[in-house]
Amino acid sequence: MRVIICGAGRVGYGIAERLSEEGNDVSVIDTQPSLIAAITETLDVRGHVGHGAYPDVLAKAGADQADMIIAVTLFDEINMVACQVAHSLFNVPTKIARIRSQSYLAPEYADLFSRDDIPIDVAISPEIEVGKMVLRRISFPGATDVVRFAEDRIMMIAIECMEDCPVVETPLKQLSELFPDLNATVTGIFTNGRLFVPTSTDRLHSGDLAYVVCDRDHVRRTLALFGHEEKEAARIVIAGGGNIGYFVANAIEDYQPRTRLKIIENDRERAIAIADKLRHAVVLHGSALDRKMLLQADIQSADLVIALTNNDQINILGSVMAKRLGCKQNLVLINDPSYQDFTKSLGIDAQINPRAVTISGILQHVRKGRIRAVYAVQQGSAEVIEAEALETSPLVGRPLRETELPEGVRIGGIYRDKAFVRPNGDTRIKARDRVVLFATASAVRHVEQLFRVSIQYF
To answer: How confident is the model over 381-414, as pLDDT tens digits?
Structure first.
């Protein structure tokens, strides 16, 4: 596949890295020569210094032969114009743009991004996607990651195995025998810096991170089985009242009205603006690094602090201070992946990487075959994929025990007739089933082939 990426920042670099590793023909455009030099020196991609919306720059990048353009510069308008030019002048089939301003995404303007107006096939909003991720984490305390699939019927949860976790040192096969009515499957394990797909004889150890695919109705029971029975937060403090912070606060007011919510915002005008919009939340003007401000927000009696400023250092240090002052748990937004390796030692309970969320949203549209959703874990070491099985798929018809799945792939759940089906050796996948599976990065291409449309289908 030939792909043009406009923007060589963190998101653009991450997408280019994933696509180039998979053998795609990738060209990257950015106005900053230093970013282009860095990306071409480390990745197998072509770089072009220039404005991503200029026709001559797109032409040099090979837009006339491109299958897709992904516009992820820092400016919405550049991303939109780049897609428009790619469509009008070069007839690029698929156009994806990152759109950050919520004004463009208002429901009353839903027809703006269409073939007859601004021809963007997929508009990705990092703020909304990250906000939804935060809300899912709040809803399921104890999980370090939560993603929904198959019309919200199937969930993938990442669970840390603590020292007192009841399921440690137990073979996974035995877990299935002990809890036959639990619709949950351990599909991936991250241990000692290594991510792998387990077999039925593998065991979980203290400190491991388990990636579990389960029925939506069995999430809380699954968390309890792993020793996580934390209650939902009744008192929440949000540090940062920007787009993400406001989105989360507004949703909490709508869906969890009994939650006592306070927001700390450093910009006075922004603090006044969101205070006028929110109905019940208390908005405080000040810094999340100010001890007096944290105490004024009653951080010592808070169940959860959520750090959502645009500064990683403030998010990390503010969250550490909050816990030292008595807050029970913290959830931190971290943009720079270099910080993620040592946050646990500082006392960070859970973190969200906006870049990873955005890249996952884009990857599902890059993947070949009937791929409906993709979520990347552990900085792209593996993906949780939802795919639709067609009649020509080699998975269809035979019992799973007779099916040779690619190495590094484990099926976690099947969505059939609006219900969850827990897979076992006797399970037969049917055409139109939606399969949620865990695949290591090296196995993703094989997964695409399993769900690819065959010529026989027509």
So the answer is: 999 999 999 988 889 999 999 988 999 999 999 9
Domain spanning 235-327, CATH architecture: 3-Layer(aba) Sandwich (3.40)
CATH 3.40.50.720 domain locations along the chain: 2-124, 235-327
Give residue-wise pLDDT tens across range 156-185: 999 999 888 888 999 999 988 889 899 999
pTM of the model as a whole = 0.85
Paired strand residues for 262: 237, 282
Query: With respect to CATH, is domain 2-124 assigned 3.40.50.10210?
Result: no
pLDDT digits (tens, 9 = 90+) for 252-273: 999 888 999 999 999 999 999 9
Q: CB neighbours of 140 closer than 8 A, spacing ≥ 6?
A: 146, 157, 219, 220, 223
Q: Options 3.30.70.1450, 3.30.1490.20, 3.40.190.10, 3.40.50.720; which CATH number does 359-457 get?
A: 3.30.70.1450
177, 209, 241, 260, 302 from 268: Cα distances, Å: 58, 40, 10, 22, 23
Tokens 């003007």, residue? 285
The H-or-E segment that residue 371 falls in is strand 371-377
Neighbours of 383 (CB within 10 A): 26
